[in-house]
Amino acid sequence: MNKIFSMSRKDVLTFVIFSAVVLLMPIWLQPFGAAYPDLMQKFAIFGILAIGFNVLFGLTGYLSFGHAAFLGVGSYTAVWTFKLFSMNPIPALILAVIMAGLFALAIGYVSLRRSGIYFSILTLAFAQMSYNLAYSVLTPITNGETGLQLELQDPRVIDSAFGSTSDGSLPVSNLFGLVDMNGIPGFYFCAVFLIIGFFITQRIFASPFGMMLRAIKSNQTRMNYTGFNTRPYTLTAFVISGMFAGLAGGLMAVTDPLAGAERMQWTASGEIVLMTILGGVGTLIGPVVGAWLIKYFENIFSSFNESVLHNLFAFLPDGVEKFVVEITSMFVGEGWHLTLGLIFMLVVTFLPGGMMEGFRRIGSLFNRDGGDKAKPNEKTPAPAPAE
Amino acid sequence: MSERKDGPSRRKVLKGAAAGLVTAGVAPTIFTSSAHAFRNEPTGDTVTLGFNVPQTGSYADEGADELRAYQLAVEHLNGEGDGGMLNTMQPSALKGEGILGKKVAYVTGDTQTKSDAARASAKRMIEKDGALMISGGSSSGVAIAVQGLCQEMGTIFMAGLTHSNDTTGKDKRRYGFRHFFNAYMSGAALGPVLGQEYGKDRRAYHLTADYTWGWTQEESMINSTEALGWETAETVKTPVGAGDFSQYITPVLNSGADVLILNHYGRDMVNSLTQAIQFGLKDRQSNGKDFQIVVPLFSRLMAQGAGENIKGILGSTNWNWSLQDAGSQAFVKSFGAKYGFPPSMAAHTCYVQTLLYADACERAGTFDPIQVIKALEGHKFDGMGNGPTEYRAEDHQCFKDVLVVRGNENPTSQFDLLNVVQQVPRSQVEYDASIFGGDLGPYEV
Amino acid sequence: MDAIFLQFLNGLDKGGAYALIALGLTLVFGTLGVVNFAHGALFMLGAFCAVTLRKLLTLEMVATDPEKVTAWGTPLEIRTPYVEAWFGDFGAFMVDFSVPFSILLAIPVMLVIGVVMERGLIKHFYRRPHAEQILVTFGLAIVLQEIIKHYFGANPIPQPMPSAVGGAADIGAALGMDPNVIVYPWWRLIYFAFSVVVIGAVFAFLQFTTFGMVVRAGMADRETVGLIGIDIDKRFTAMFGLAAIVAGMAGVMYTPLLPPDYHLGMDFLVLSFVVVVVGGMGSLPGAVAAGFLLGILQSLASMTEIKAIIPGIDQIIIYLVAVIILLVRPRGLLGRRGVMES
Predict the structure, then answer these.
(1) Is C339 inside a domain boundary?
(2) Most buried pick, B21, C145, C160, C271, via CB within 10 A?
């Protein structure tokens, strides 16, 4: 047991810095205008999703295009647990992880019979089937387009057994009636899971199991020729990453008790892939950075409307200001997709290793003369314009 | 973003050293202290409203039009421009001096027509930008999701375009208000006109978008047409965003039906209508009668995408710019003067909702949502385009006249797509608030 | 029986569209080994060639009538299309046939777009991992569609077909059955015929020209062809251009069936990948066969009788078939071993 916790010094340092960065988000996100509870919760949740995905894709090279399905299953399970049993997040999360794990086991068992793009299409097909059915035929379970929501009439057998009474308003998920799972406490709740999840992946990366997965990635055929059955390993990795997704889905429901089918759509699966590649596949921190960057764009860039821009550039002379606002407004507000697309192209063209490679390059610039101050540079926040 | 208003930080998130930093920026506000305090109470000289519309995705143009209407409403509230409906609204407590003396500012967000994105964006506006009221939406799923969120957050939600019965039925909320009409009213208004135009002996074939809005629309249309004596030949659910609907249209040909009812909206409506007409349904004879197509919910903006195909097709709409009452004309005039074209019905409902909220604040004399809700509940007003209107207290649904329209055979401009066939009086589309169930929930949250 | 026949017919025209898109995608896979997520965007760009031509043809002279005012306060505009003013009836004919004419515009435009895309971007990604190809082409697809959205808006823009073929053909009557039982839109029949012609032409080009032979040899064994001293890269660039043209033409001809908007490409993207994979990576006949197979199955699954037995089957049929085929035939219908598996 001791061995699991024995980490190299570098790993300990990475872990400590990572935890500090996550826990101090409410402070260092201030200048970026992102330090409000909902976005920080999303940062933590999508961070979990991305590192989980990275266990599969980064280590084994299997590109799942249907990972959002597990996110959706986790969310639906968590909301149903709230409705039927208790508003406590712990049972909801446990069930969400288990359900997502079972789902991943079933889908993974079938899909992993194929590799390469055939595997990707199989996972995509399963996820799209889940999405289409959840949106329409399975509405009694999923509440379709509207999304599964809490209702006053929900039984909540455990809560009512403990005599919690309704004041006529919908309950909020809470930890044993002590802390409500919204706002800043909700963020810290998610952040703890992100840190635990990060720790687990760190251990997986350093373990013999992780080595095995990497070996599969580099040459599966050779592994098979040596008489070694790789399937149990890939399936384990698939299930683990499915459970991470289920945890993320559960946390989404904990911080905001609503589960919608669109969480399972292929675009959502694609988003996970993009986060991971954008940040840096196979690196520990890259996927998290990618997730933060994309969520930042989605929530902050999309909110810059023309009047905000006019305020921003008010110091410029009139004609120039109008021109600058016209140009920038193409890239923010309703044009934020355009910026995202351009960033994908630029990063992948010039930084094939994702943002992490960029940080490494910046880091090596400073360390060129061989200083021993080599520090992981993951702390560098995603470059974003100050407001 | 200098205009952002942050409420005072009521809660020390990080005690000690970090506290100073936090007060400088965000204000995660959970109120436990005094009874009169409410989230995002404006303390400066401005009040911030949040406009949450689709800016990307299929409804982006509709969202853009909604945003134009919001900007116009904010201008008028602040006493800029020609005042628009401020001059025609009755009764009105608005003076063009902002709301309760505070200048109106606004923030915007992109719903992407997805519940999750819409809720995230609404949360940003409430938690970070200090928005006191959220408005917007172009789909019922999104509106219901955001309305639920606003109930939890104790922030008033003035729904934009949402047509499902559920918004003010099964999923109604104390903090949610809808000015737009709903599927039930479409059915109730269209039914008698369909009877007059196409007779009592008809067999209807429904193609229905397979999600909650589609189902309520289908149900309402079946109820009102069967009450006329029509038969329902078949009801077929189609996947949302199918693009090509031809595989669902071929079975219509030999089904023995003589009316096709398309319970689709937006892009689905454009596609299914275009394709149905290519199958020659409009020129077809069935059971010795001319085959007819009906589109229960028409939107002028989306109808442009169907081009020639909407000519002669009957449907219903909440409002159209061709209305001749003083309120509509004032709105069309100031919108047209600013943007160069007439507003859509989505723009109209968003504009009216903003004014109604501001007016309710003035009448309540406070921004306290509980008082504002009470001021809106049961409020009767006129001069906003649909005749005398009432915000029913039981379900927060506006009751007003509904327009039955027909695709214009000889449009004089690209905007002149719909002719008003009949302005169906409010009494005909009214229903008992209890038929859809649901529970508004408490004032205090 | 009539119903099944009609659905079958419907499956053919659907399948034609799927096959055309999958064909271009497979050309790129097979030759360049690139997973092109921007292929849907090429389809969309083709559709907007039609939109652009129609816009140009219907450009209007705008004169304002100061006497009259619109309801929203601007002076009433009197619009006359230039083309009609200049060419009279012939102009009206041009406008009426704008969609078929757009093909003439789409071929050079798409060729240029394709070659620029390949030389400017795709070229650098030949030897990069598929995941990076996916990301960069996906980014490109987003950029392209956002540019279109910026200029054309988000609403669909209707593209009427020539009025001569606007209605539906009474196939039943032509075959000596009762009239008005089996009717089918002319344009859908035309689309099916068009797809057969284009697919045939591409196959003939690859089969019977020296150029095509070299390309096929390059698809089978790129290195050896290179060793013989043939510049295969140039030919592959040309194939990318060809794929773009095929996608673009498919887009042009599709516009009367589906009023195009900027998002059109994304809607077809996933579907076309499923078609290509079911057909077998890199196999042209496989892509065509899978296109028609999935089109027909989708149409049949939408029949009320079948939905009554398995609710929701029409929503998932394509994916269900994909799963089954991939489990039964590891490399799709006609895929070769070792393509895109590492």
Answers:
(1) no
(2) C145
